[in-house]
């Protein structure tokens, strides 16, 4: 059983505070009866409507996946490509969706959940949740070029926030390098565009970390549920720990 306003927030109806206002002002019904008490609790079997529109009352679930290449980070794909939802086994009955996106050819850590409130907070630029990527690039970046990434580079006409960048290894013969880049923004194709901006196009890209979470113990194409302590910490990172 969960508090009604929490279930509404998880379903992405509104923030918890706005959901409370919807309840107290008479917009919400549970099993056909108007509810205005904030202490009301519901289960996944209860039928909840907001202004007569039903919402999902599934209990929240949080998954960590190592997304492989040639898989799209969406629930459905018009081009009929494989999606991250296709990689979930039949044990996951809840309707989850990705938190943010990874490109079709980008691999690595992806979160999936049905907690709309947490997903919105994690992807909001205000909270500056750090993500670390490891990229194989053409050429070998100089210290000065990496410094540009740390200071911010201009992509799509706007300056990026300062990033953490590091040269992990280089191959003089093949003229390629492995670079680590940590950012807290989430613009479209941002990492690729940042590295392109300093003259080193990305050949391969993988997201290694999301906040404090890593891919340890999870193979490409596999996933696991976050444990209660991880969920609690993730909510703290997203400023939902009150």
Short description:
This protein is of the alpha+beta class and 242 residues long. It is built from six helices and 17 strands. It has helices at residues 4-10, 16-24, 116-123, 143-151, 190-197, 228-237, and strands spanning 2-3, 28-30, 33-34, 41-42, 48-50, 53-54, 62-67, 97-98, 107-113, 131-138, 154-155, 158-159, 164-171, 176-183, 202-210, 213-214, 223-225.
Note the overall shape: elongated
CATH superfamily of the largest domain: Pseudouridine synthase I, catalytic domain, N-terminal subdomain
Query: Over all CA atoms, what is the radius of gyration?
Result: 21 Å
Number of domains: 3
- What letter string, H or E per element, gives the SSE order? EHHEEEEEEEEHEHEEEEHEEEH
- In the CATH scheme, the class of the largest domain would be Alpha Beta
Return the CATH architecture of the largest domain: 2-Layer Sandwich
- Tell me the number of helical segments per DSSP (H or I, 4 or more residues long): 6
- Kindly state the mean pLDDT as a whole number? 93
Helix content: 10-25%
Query: What does the main sheet amount to?
Result: 9 strands, mixed
Strand-residue fraction?
25-35%
CATH topology name of the largest domain: Alpha-Beta Plaits
Low-confidence stretches: none
């Amino acid at each position: 059983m969960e508090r009604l306003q929490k279930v509404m927030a998880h379903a992405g109806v509104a923030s918890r505070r706005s959901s409370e206002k919807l309840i107290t002002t008479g917009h919400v019904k549970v099993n056909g009866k108007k509810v205005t008490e904030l202490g009301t609790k519901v289960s996944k079997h209860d039928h909840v409507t907001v202004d007569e529109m039903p919402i999902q009352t599934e209990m929240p679930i949080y998954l960590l996946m190592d997304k492989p290449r040639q898989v799209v980070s969406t629930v459905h794909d018009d081009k009929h490509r494989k999606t991250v939802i296709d990689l979930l086994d039949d044990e996951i009955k809840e309707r989850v969706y990705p938190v943010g996106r990874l490109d079709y050819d980008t691999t690595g850590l992806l979160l999936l959940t049905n907690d709309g409130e947490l997903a919105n907070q994690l992807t909001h630029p205000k909270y500056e949740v750090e993500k670390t990527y490891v990229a194989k690039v053409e050429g070998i970046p100089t210290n000065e070029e990496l410094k540009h990434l740390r200071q911010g580079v201009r992509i799509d006409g706007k300056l990026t926030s300062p990033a953490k960048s590091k040269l992990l290894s280089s191959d003089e013969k093949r003229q390629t390098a492995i670079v680590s880049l940590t950012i807290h923004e989430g613009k479209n194709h941002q990492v690729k565009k940042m590295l392109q901006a300093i003259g080193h196009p990305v050949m391969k890209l993988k997201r290694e970390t999301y906040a404090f979470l890593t891919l340890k113990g999870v193979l490409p194409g596999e996933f696991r549920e976050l444990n209660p302590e991880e969920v609690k910490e993730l909510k703290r990172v997203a400023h939902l720990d009150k």
